[in-house]
Design brief:
This protein is α/β, with parallel strands linked by helices and about 625 residues long. The chain is about 40% helix and about 15% strand. The protein starts with 11 loop residues before the first helix and ends in a 5-residue tail after the last helix.
Length: about 625
């Protein structure tokens, strides 16, 4: 027999059968389950603990999945997954074959829209609301957007579009910034209920109709209403976009949540509900340090998460140390991040050089053009950015940076596969989309020491440059503390063998060297994807029967394609085997297992090469 309320909930239909008085007990059980479950699997914790009541209330009031709930960003959806039939699946969260850590349409009908990147929810929900209108359906669309996601221009583009419609779209701002928490109390909760009620809406419409015959008086009344709201709420901005602003309200108070959402559901036109929540709510260590508990590995809930110390430095740490050292050597250096200070390794830099550190928010497009403007006036910007997020600033990279040949350096973290975060965060395409851009310098280090040297090389280059490196640690190479550069476009022959030459880029140099021992193959660490070392390619082509390119990037248009193009230009015709990421989105899982499944570990490389050798003429 079920021992808890949570055990009885396998769908929102069962949730909606509960009495409102049961919901606080359900929230407590759900929060306890989350802590224990994520302790077993790892994942995003603090953000999910903060949205428990909001998630319950949304599913309680709205007829999901008929009504659509669009989450933004995706790492606040674990409670949503648990309440929509995936409680048992949480044991395999982000594991091979298990459920994803983000909403995913293919996983559940309750996941209305996939989300791994931020700031997409309002656009998607507006599209759904318009589709319902076109189809004559009474379905509703709700977008829940995290406060950080509101820093992206895309969110405001969508607000601007939505505010010009009369569609019944609800945008919920999940605000977990405690700076406004003093504003959330009995008065604001009362005003939110009042402003979301039918009487207020009817009175407002009637007043607008009466005053429409006297425009000056109507404008005066509108300004008076905005002034009154503005004294207790920060909603004037959203009113100007055409939304009816409601809030802020306490996102952990079921009475207020249920009343307000129920009222809003009866209203027409775009509505904006401001909800204040607390990251890590209900688990003291996460409340005290939500940054540490944002994304966690497996841990004991009783003991909490321990700060990581010791071990091999990650590529991210290598970059962070280099950035501080180079900043000390060159006062022109500034560091820019689109809201990824911790993830990209800029914590120490932000502390040591606060006036030269710029976190521009979740605004990758702005980050690139801001860097371009700095570069125009003699500053040397370094933009620290994940490969997957660089995709969002592609036009700015081409139009604002590369076309003007400006010295903007990209430090591209999380290049290649990223493990449990899966395809939304994988850096599978950067070599392909960067290689075709004129003026670009592209480097891919094979170990930690080479990473430091190539970062220096790219920084000193008087043009656009990119250094891409993987998530996690490298091979454990000894790191030279200097700031020495290497010659641009020159690779290194790491091993000389016979018949087969492995032409490896970045992270695949290490498995290439492992495979080369049994194959008796030559191994080239190319270092640069653009420009390629043509002399080294020509040498390898003339001394071997088979060339094999290796990259942790999509084969289509990647570094291997560049090698084939270069050899064709040189007039070299010979067999080439391209090994890299296949033409598919690769599921989440253990990083080493994922590479092995793609045939990019030493055993996979050896197997692929031996198969191809059998097809070569004697």
């Amino acid at each position: 027999m079920p021992t808890s309320l949570l055990d009885t909930i396998n769908s929102p239909d069962e949730l909606r059968a509960l009495s409102p008085t049961d919901l606080p007990k359900l929230a407590n059980e759900l929060r306890e389950f989350l802590v224990n479950s994520v302790g077993q699997t790892g994942g995003h914790l603090a953000s999910n603990l903060g949205t428990v009541e909001l998630t319950i209330a949304l599913h309680y009031v709205y007829d999901t999945p008929r009504d659509r709930i669009v989450w933004d960003v995706g790492h606040q959806t674990y409670a949503h997954k648990i309440l929509t039939g995936r409680r048992a699946g949480m044991a395999g969260l982000r594991q091979p074959g298990g459920i994803a850590g983000f909403p995913r349409r293919a996983e559940s009908t309750f996941d209305a829209f996939g989300a791994g990147h931020s700031s997409t929810s309002i656009s998607a929900a507006l599209g759904m609301a318009e589709a319902f209108h076109q189809l004559g359906s009474s379905q509703r669309a709700v977008a829940i957007i995290g406060d950080g996601a509101m820093t992206a221009g895309m969110a405001f583009e969508a607000l601007n579009n939505a505010g010009a419609t009369d569609l019944p779209l609800l945008v919920v701002l999940n605000d977990n910034d405690m700076s406004i928490s003093p504003n959330v109390g009995a008065l604001n909760n009362y005003l939110a209920r009042l402003m979301s009620g039918k009487f207020y809406a009817a009175a407002r419409r009637a007043g607008e109709k009466v005053l429409s015959v006297a425009p000056p008086i109507r404008e005066l009344a509108k300004r008076a209403e905005e002034h009154m709201k503005g004294m207790v709420t920060p909603g004037t901005l959203f009113e100007e976009f055409g939304f009816n602003y409601i809030g802020p309200i306490d996102g952990h108070d079921f009475d207020v949540l249920l009343d307000t959402l129920s009222n809003i559901k009866q209203l027409n036109g775009p509505q904006f509900l401001h909800v204040v929540t607390r990251k890590g709510k209900g688990y003291a260590p996460a409340e005290a340090n939500p940054c540490l508990y944002h994304g966690v590995s497996r841990f004991d809930p009783a003991a909490g998460v321990a700060e990581k110390t010791g071990g091999k430095p990650t590529y991210t740490q290598v970059f962070g140390d280099w950035l501080c050292d180079m900043a000390a050597a060159d006062t022109r250096l500034v560091g820019i991040t689109p809201a990824m200070r911790e993830g990209s390794g800029l914590v120490r830099f932000s502390q040591d050089y606060p006036k030269r550190y710029f976190d521009v928010g979740i605004a990758e497009q702005h980050a690139l053009t801001f860097a371009a403007g700095l570069a125009c006036e003699g500053i040397k910007p370094v933009v620290a950015i994940y490969s997957t997020f660089l995709q969002r600033a592609y036009d700015q990279l081409i139009h604002d940076v590369a076309l003007q040949n400006l010295p903007v350096m990209l430090a591209i973290d999380r290049a290649g596969l990223v493990g449990a975060d899966g395809p939304t965060h994988a850096g599978s395409f950067d070599l392909s989309f960067l290689r075709c851009i004129p003026n670009m310098l592209i480097a891919a280090p094979s170990d930690e020491n080479e990473c430091r040297a190539l970062l220096t090389t790219a920084f000193l280059h008087e043009g656009p440059s990119a250094v891409r490196y993987p998530r996690g640690s490298g091979v454990g190479a000894t790191i030279d503390a200097g700031l020495d550069a290497v010659e641009i476009g020159k690779g290194v022959l790491r091993r000389r063998g016979h018949d087969v030459a492995l032409i490896a880029f970045g992270s695949l140099v290490a498995p290439a060297l492992q495979a080369a021992g049994t194959l008796d193959a030559s191994v080239a660490d190319m270092r640069f994807v653009k420009p390629l070392d043509l002399d080294l390619l020509r040498e390898l082509a003339h001394g071997h029967r088979l060339l094999v390119t290796l990259e942790e990037n999509a084969v289509a248009g990647g570094a291997g394609a560049g090698v084939a193009e270069a050899l064709a230009e040189l007039g070299v015709i010979m067999p080439i085997l391209h090994l890299g990421l296949p033409d598919t989105f690769i599921e989440h899982g253990d990083p080493a297992r994922m590479l092995a499944d793609c045939g990019l570990d030493a055993a996979g490389i050896e197997h692929a090469v031996r198969q191809r050798i059998t097809l070569l003429p004697e």
